[in-house]
Amino acid sequence: MNLKISAGLALLLPLVLAVGCGGAPPPTSEAPPPDPAAEAQRLAQEILILDTHIDLPYRLHEHPADVTVETADGHFDLVRARRGGLDAAFMSIYVPASLQEEGGARAMADGLIDLVEGIAAQAPESFAIARSPAEVRSLFEQRVFALPLGIENGAAIEDDISALAHFHGRGVRYVTLTHSEPNLICDSSYAEERPWGGLSPFGREVVVEMNRLGIMIDVSHLTDDAARQALELSRAPVIASHSCARHFTPGFERNIPDELVSLVAAGGGVVQIAFAPGFLSEAAQRQSSELWAAMRAFTNETGASWGSPEFRARVEEFYAANPKAETDVADVADHIEHVIRLVGIDHVGLGSDFDGIGDTPAGLESVAAYPKLLEELLRRGYTEQDLRKICGENLLRVWSEVERVAAELQAG
Ligand SMILES: [Zn+2]
User: Which of 326, 361, 384 is the last residue of a domain?
Assistant: First the structure.
């Protein structure tokens, strides 16, 4: 639903939505500011904006670049981050599922962490790794961009539970339990093969150890069964670091269903909404599945590599024959608003997946664009306090609680 509302209507909106959604909490109660675009620009610079999923490390692993200056490629660099008011971003330490078979998963994760350490070491006045919510806040005060770390794919620990302590020691503060294939920990929403029926026995040990160490458990990419089991087992709040609401894409298991949104919220956790066009609407989802199937067939037939000039030409041919299913900033706001109507303002945030997605919604082309999203939310009547929660405070609350639970567990 796209809500384009006048200031007067905004006052009635909570009532309309509450009735429309069977008594769900009203999302908002304020008239928009007179100039939402200017107010969004002001707020983006003033408040702490934290994104839980940016794939910069893998992008730089493939195509090295200096991100202290504006880069022609990719979605993230310091210049555009400053323009967009972004202050902190979890660097995705992405371990491709192929390494589960080939070996080298742990080495890949260590290599990407080395790469992030290199970014901070080369420009210490601009970047620093952040290991706690307190460090994120202190870097924000100093105007240093905070780089917390999250591993995307628990395969990084291979079959060694003690690797979790190793990665915690290096600064990793969330682990997405799997990626596109089942691993030793759990099943993946993208794979038909479901060997564990959720979490494996080793995966249950992993959840317990992550609680003890103070590493957030990330259920993005998991099957519903794996996510539910992790939520039931975890003693600390759980996050979905980059997922959208399945409400808008029925049958697409990569997005989180209402039932699990409610469970995440009941445990005190947070759902961080992704900007991937294929996650946002049914039409875009269908098209993105068709495109990937076509490209898999193309690479199998021709041996062309992903991202090669032939590959990109084939993608263009696809869009010439299939007009693009457009998505925009209002779709992202719809997903945020859906979670708010289900479980309130305290359980939603931003996990864009910038640099991990080939395409972006119109209006959200890079990290310079967060003010566009804030503007859309202001137009819908959300307050400064609401925006602070969505943009980072909710996630920082969860992270602090995960630290608190770990300290308690370690104290015995
Ligand atoms: Zn992902």
Answer: 326
27-37 pLDDT, tens digit per residue, is 566 788 999 99
Distance in Å, CA 220 to ligand 1 centroid: 7
294 and 321: one domain? yes
Which residue intervals of 241-388 are DSSP H helices?
Answer: 258-266, 277-280, 282-302, 309-321, 329-343, 370-379, 384-388
What separation in Å is there between the alpha carbon of 411 and the centre of ligand 1?
34
| Ligand 1 center–CA 100 separation, angstroms | 16
Q: How far is the CA of 36 from the centre of ligand 1 (A)?
A: 32
**CA of residue 33 to ligand 1 center, whole Å:** 35
| Amino acid, res. 295 | M
> Within this chain, do residues 73 and 200 fall inside the same structural domain, yes or no?
yes
The string of DSSP codes covering 164-196 is: HHHHHHTTEEEEES--SS--SSB-BTT-S--TT
Same domain for 211 and 298, yes or no, is no
pLDDT for 30 equals 74
Distance between Cα 353 and ligand 1 center (Å): 7
359 alpha carbon – ligand 1 mean position (Å): 14
pLDDT value at 90 more than 90: yes
Q: What is the pLDDT of residue 276?
A: 97
For the chain, the domain total comes to 2
% of the chain exceeding 70 in pLDDT: 93
Ligand 1 center from residue 321 Cα (angstroms): 28
**Residues 360 and 244 reside in one and the same domain:** yes
Tell me the residue range of the domain where 44 lies: 33-281+328-411
Backbone angles phi, psi at 256, to 5 degrees: -90, 130
- Look over the chain and give the mean of its residue pLDDT values, rounded to a whole number: 93
The answer to whether residue 299 is domain-embedded is yes
Taking the centre of ligand 1 as the mean of its atom positions, its distance from the CA of residue 358, in whole angstroms, is 12
Phi, psi angles (nearest 5°) of residue 333: -60, -35
Query: How much distance in Å is there from the Cα of 221 to the middle of ligand 1?
Result: 7
pTM: 0.92
